[in-house]
Amino acid sequence: MNDRIERLADEAAKLGVTKGAARDGRWQALGLAAMVVGAGVALLAYPLSLGKSDPRDIQSLIILAVAMLAVAVLGAAVFLRYSLGRFLRFWLLRQLYDGQDHIDQVVAALREPPPSSTPSPPAPPAADLTERQISR
Amino acid sequence: MTAGNGATPPLDGPVAALELRGVHAAYAGIEVLSGVDLVVPVGAVVALLGANGAGKSTTVKVAAGLLRPTAGSVMVAGHDVTGAAAHDLARIGVCTIPEGRGIFPNLSVRENLWMAVPERGRLPAVEEAAFTRFPRLAERRTQLAGTLSGGEQQMLALCRALVVDPAVLLLDELSMGLAPIVVQQLYEIVARVATEGISILVVEQFAQAVLGIADRAAIMVNGTVTQAGTPAEMQSALSDAYLGG
User: Phi first, then psi: what are they for B19, rounded to 5°?
Assistant: First the structure.
């Protein structure tokens, strides 16, 4: 009995995720901010460069724009990583419910007597169907 | 019998397997739990009872990490895990059998067990242990889970949870939609599981079904635990909780 609780205590101590969900939300926000700021600064750098005559200033602004585009791409990746996980869990849950609903309909249809007036052999009970019979 | 906050002294050692302290929870701003205190001692079966809508399932969701509390804390083996993700809690040994079982209906019984075991090398040993514990499932190992009877689906859900050797098991409405004889069989299985040292929190609307195996019981009314104690002490409080007054 104590082994289980000791193992649980060890794993819970290693977990260290008292603020796990909030941390995910912060990364999402950071990714979104990086996207917006990166794209915004890159777009600003272009009209600024039009007003410059010195090629070195123009080059500096080009470098800034490219760097900010990289920041925007990185921000998008961070945002997707921390938001996709939650979406995929809900999607899986939805698939489970839809699958159960579909199976319930199939089982109900198999258990109903055939509509024709002539007698026909009874369908096998649904509970006896194996995966091979259903997939045929 | 204790009243009010519902905290119960531990049966075995100072550390509770699971403890909720002052937990508040809400859905879309509407508070459902208003300061829940609940203790599941190590190796004990604790029944959480109450009428429909009392907040029992919400309590399980908070304990399982499926719902983040708005206030309060969730402690597992003495460590604060408030806000931990449900999959992290499941990985460390806090397993939940939700209302509705949560099995994969279009997979066979064996495949449902495989989903709980990431290491392929362990599969034969896991299957043998599972089907020894649940011989009825062994007879239906290739049958689609969605075509099992309600009681067999509940057995499969229990079997899958036990495959990962949990330390804490959260059971939400085990008896939902099942005949009394099937419910009795399931709770006999739960009682056998409890002897292996697994700490179990059972949420149940039908009190008599679970009080026969519980070490402690707590009654929830309108989002708070109003009474807690041994099953014998709870009998008189049950009618008030379900019928009011």
Answer: -145, 130
Distance CA B228, CA B234 (A): 7
> Which H/E stretch holds residue B215?
none
Are B24 and B31 within 8 A, CB to CB?
yes
How confident is the model at residue A113, as a pLDDT?
A: 75
Angle between helical axes of A55-111 and A20-50 (0-180°, round to 10): 140
Residue spans of alpha helices (H) in B93-230: 109-114, 123-133, 135-138, 150-163, 180-194, 207-211
CA–CA gap between residue B161 and residue A54 (Å, rounded) = 70
| Rg of chain A in Å (alpha carbons) | 30
Within A20-130, where are the H helices? 20-50, 55-111
* Selected residue of B19, B70, B81, B148 to mutate for chain A interface (largest A Cβ count, 10 A): B81
**Owner of token pair 């026969």:** B212
* Residue A1 forms contact with B (CB below 8 Å): yes
Residues of B in contact with A99 (CB under 8 A): 104-106, 146
Contact present, B220 and B226 (Cβ < 8 Å): yes
A113 phi-psi bin (left φ>0, alpha ψ -120 to 50, beta other): beta
Interface predicted TM-score (ipTM): 0.72
C-alpha neighbours within 13 Å on the C-beta side of residue A5: 24
List, in order, residues 6 or more apart from A16 with CB less than 8 Å away: none
Residues B174/B186, Cβ–Cβ less than 8 Å: yes
Residue ranges of chain A whose pLDDT lies below 50: 1, 18, 131-136
DSSP A126: G
DSSP annotation of A125 reads: P
Task: Round the CA-based radius of gyration of chain B to a whole number and report it.
Answer: 17
Which residues of chain B neighbour A11 with C-beta distances below 8 Å?
91-93
pTM: 0.67
- pLDDT of B6 strictly over 80: no
| Interface contact flag, B105 A100, Cβ < 8 Å | yes
Nearest to A5 among B68, B77, B142 (CB): B77
